Amino acid sequence: MPIPDYQSVMLPLLIVASDGKDHRMSEAVEVISGQFGLTEAERHEQIPSGTEKIYDRISWAKSYMKAAMLLEYPQRGLFRITERGRSVLAQKPAKIDLTLLRQFPEFVDYYDGKASDNLEPAGTATAAIADVTPTQLLESGFQQMRKEIQSQLLDQIKERSPQFLEQLVLRLLTRMGYSDPLPGSAKRVGGPGDQGIDVVIKRDPLGLDVLYVQAKRYTNGSIGRQDIQAFAGALPGATRGIFVTTSTFTKQAIDNAKQQDLAGKKIILIDGVELSRLMYEHGIGVSAEKSRTYEVKPVDPGFFVEDEAEFGSG
Q: How far is residue 13's CA from residue 150's CA, in Å, rounded to a whole number?
């Protein structure tokens, strides 16, 4: 079943703590994962930052209920129910969500304080924002911005000449490390009579390891089987090639590339989406000077267990 959102795990989490004992997050994750029937794969599914998705959602549910004073943290790594939490459970709510938590002024101050940073208008909780954690919002926003930038990169390439694309591919592959450090190990050879080879990259001083590249700038249409077959025919002997296009590859083209692999010629296909992704990843065509960094600084629990004498007793 789908991994529950953080509001859906609030009531189960409070019930876990209803025995009045101190509990750890790992225990809550195991219990709640079982209650929702999560598979092993779902249990370990991760968000882009590497945190397990179910752990992230339960963690935020815990934080929000602490802000509403339904839970408290008696010591590092532990949580337990409060008298207010017991009172809420005694009312046998069908669910615990942001609407219920907003009846407590402590939570309103906490949550609307976050909302004031232009995430949403104070006093509201839209369905889209309410269903995801702040971690997911941040990562989702980053991914959306990245996709938009990559789309802009691809649009820019399509407006340039085929020669520009060849030079771009040469620079990208060099940045990725596909060249020998000696001068002239990578060069553009595209032009009349190139026989389908636009870039040649020697990966060692003697030229024993060579990559051959073809770059096709298409504003529409797709690369077909015949294009791949012709490129493979232009490759000398059993060697490796990279076919780059600003458009897409047909299924027949992809299948033919696989067949060439079986015949001893390894051909890597890079379409427009992958090209723009690699450009972004390796800093080609994007400005580092205008980039923004949003630094998240988690609490350091070790700081708070230092000898208090170090700070004085006053």
A: 40
